[in-house]
Automatic annotation (TrEMBL):
Residues 117-214 form the Tetrahydrofolate dehydrogenase/cyclohydrolase NAD(P)-binding domain. This is Methenyltetrahydrofolate cyclohydrolase. InterPro entries: Aminoacid_DH-like_N_sf, NAD(P)-bd_dom_sf, THF_DH/CycHdrlase, THF_DH/CycHdrlase_cat_dom, THF_DH/CycHdrlase_NAD-bd_dom. Belongs to the tetrahydrofolate dehydrogenase/cyclohydrolase family. Catalyzes the oxidation of 5,10-methylenetetrahydrofolate to 5,10-methenyltetrahydrofolate and then the hydrolysis of 5,10-methenyltetrahydrofolate to 10-formyltetrahydrofolate. It comes from Rubroshorea leprosula. Residues 6-96 form the Tetrahydrofolate dehydrogenase/cyclohydrolase catalytic domain.
C-alpha cells in the first residue's frame, strides 16, 4: 500500500472487556490489516477500566501521526458513556463514522461525511454490484440502531429510495415490509421476518447475526 499512496496507513483498535464476539471482530480486523498492508495498533483494557482510561487511549491515538483511523469496539461496558467515548475520536480518524459530525453530515443533503459506517455502506455496495435499482424504489430498514439501521436508512434516502424504518414499536410491521422492493434487516432477533412478509421479487439483505439452536444436532 505504501507504493500506491506513499504512506503506510495505521488503524488503531480499542477493546474493553473480554467478550468473545468482540475479540473475534478485533482479530479479524487485524488479519484484514495485514492482508491490505495496513499497520495495526491495538489496546486491550479490562472490563473494569474507567471511562477516563479509555479516553486516555483515544487521546494518545488522536495525537499519533502514524495512526490514521481509530475504532472503538462496541459494545462498551455498561458503566461507560458510549457517546462521550465516541465523541472523543477526532473526526478525521473516525473511520467507523460514529462521531456526531459525521452522522450529521450523512443526514444532510449536500453534505458529505468523512466516513460512513461500513456495514450499511456495504449493503448499498451490494445493491450496486448486483445491479439492483434503488432510485424510486420502496425500501424498508428493520432496526434503527446508530450502527446499522439509521445509517442504512439515510444512505437509501441519498440513493432516492422511499424509505420506511420498522422498529420494536412499529404497528403492523409485516404490512409495511410487504410493500418493500428492498429490505435491509438489522435486528438482534432471529426469525423475525417471515416469508409472508416479503413480496415476490423483493431484494433482501440480512445483516443481523443471531445464534440459534440446531435442533438436528445431538
Amino acid at each position: 500500500m505504501k507504493d500506491a499512496i506513499g504512506v503506510v496507513p495505521g488503524l488503531a483498535v480499542i477493546l474493553v472487556g473480554d467478550k468473545k464476539d468482540s475479540a473475534t471482530y478485533v482479530r479479524n480486523k487485524k488479519k484484514a490489516c495485514e492482508s491490505a498492508g495496513i499497520n495495526s495498533f491495538e489496546v486491550r483494557l479490562p472490563e473494569e477500566s474507567t471511562e477516563q482510561e479509555v479516553l486516555n487511549a483515544i487521546s494518545a491515538f488522536n495525537d499519533d501521526a502514524s495512526v490514521h483511523g481509530i475504532l472503538v469496539q462496541l459494545p462498551l461496558p455498561s458503566h461507560m458513556n458510549e457517546q462521550n467515548i465516541l465523541n472523543a475520536v477526532t473526526i478525521e480518524k473516525d473511520v467507523d463514522g460514529f462521531h456526531p459530525l459525521n452522522s450529521g453530515r450523512l443526514a444532510m443533503r449536500g453534505r458529505e461525511p468523512l466516513f460512513v459506517p461500513c456495514t450499511p455502506k456495504g449493503c448499498i455496495e451490494l445493491l450496486h454490484r448486483y445491479g439492483v435499482e434503488i432510485k424510486g424504489k420502496r425500501a424498508v430498514v428493520i432496526g434503527r440502531s446508530n450502527i446499522v439501521g439509521m445509517p442504512a436508512a439515510l444512505l437509501l434516502q441519498r440513493e432516492d429510495a422511499t424509505v420506511s424504518v420498522v422498529h420494536s414499536r412499529t404497528k403492523n410491521p409485516e404490512e409495511i415490509t410487504r410493500q418493500a422492493d428492498i429490505i435491509i434487516s438489522a435486528v438482534g432477533q432471529p426469525n423475525m421476518v417471515k416469508g409472508s412478509w416479503i413480496k415476490p421479487g423483493a431484494v433482501i439483505i440480512d445483516v443481523g447475526i443471531n445464534p440459534v439452536e440446531d435442533e438436528t444436532s445431538p
